């Protein structure tokens, strides 16, 4: 299997982070909106498409905040992710003013049950993946300097 590129949205508004809520056999958890880049798309096009599909919102894409790699065999979900290798590009985004009904979009992720705003100050209390990102997002929101490249984290 090849390496997959993915574009993710970090949407912060009123000290809250917009996240997709998912459920699997282990229970509920959260992920950032966004997903895989398709052939012929650039990262911005992929992110805009994914946000419409998943959160029913057009986004304005800002700066690249983080680059995260995920090599599945190195992490706690290796029993089912061992063949996955993905590079995620996480952009600061704003929801476009013409997007009024934030919620499940036209093509939600498998297991997606909703979209929620999570308080930044409470991110460590939520099972948000990648879990290491919770502290980076909290630090960014507090104005602390953060590295762009985060390496192979979950």
TrEMBL record:
Residue ranges of domain Nudix hydrolase in the record: 2-141
PANTHER family: GDP-MANNOSE MANNOSYL HYDROLASE, MUTT_NUDIX FAMILY PROTEIN
Cofactor list: Mg(2+)
UniProt keyword annotation of Hydrolase present: yes
Transmembrane segments: none
A Pfam cross-reference name: NUDIX
Name the UniProt record assigns to this protein: NUDIX domain-containing protein
Alphabetized UniProt keyword annotations: Hydrolase
InterPro entries to which the protein is assigned, alphabetical: NUDIX_hydrolase-like_dom_sf, NUDIX_hydrolase_dom
PROSITE patterns documented for this protein: NUDIX
């Amino acid at each position: 299997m090849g390496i997959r590129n993915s574009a993710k949205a970090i949407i912060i508004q009123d000290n809250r982070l917009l996240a997709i809520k998912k459920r699997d056999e282990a229970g509920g958890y959260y992920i950032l909106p966004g997903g895989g880049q398709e052939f012929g798309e650039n990262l911005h096009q992929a992110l805009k498409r994914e946000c419409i599909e998943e959160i029913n919102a057009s986004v304005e894409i800002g700066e690249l905040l983080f680059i995260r790699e995920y090599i599945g065999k190195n992490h706690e979900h290796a029993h089912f992710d061992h063949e996955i290798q993905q590079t995620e590009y996480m952009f600061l985004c704003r929801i476009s003013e013409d997007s009024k009904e934030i919620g499940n979009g036209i093509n939600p992720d498998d297991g997606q049950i909703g979209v929620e705003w999570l308080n930044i100050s409470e991110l460590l209390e939520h099972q948000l993946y990648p879990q290491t990102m919770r502290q980076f997002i909290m630090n960014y929101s507090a104005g602390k300097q953060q590295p762009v490249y985060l390496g192979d984290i979950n």
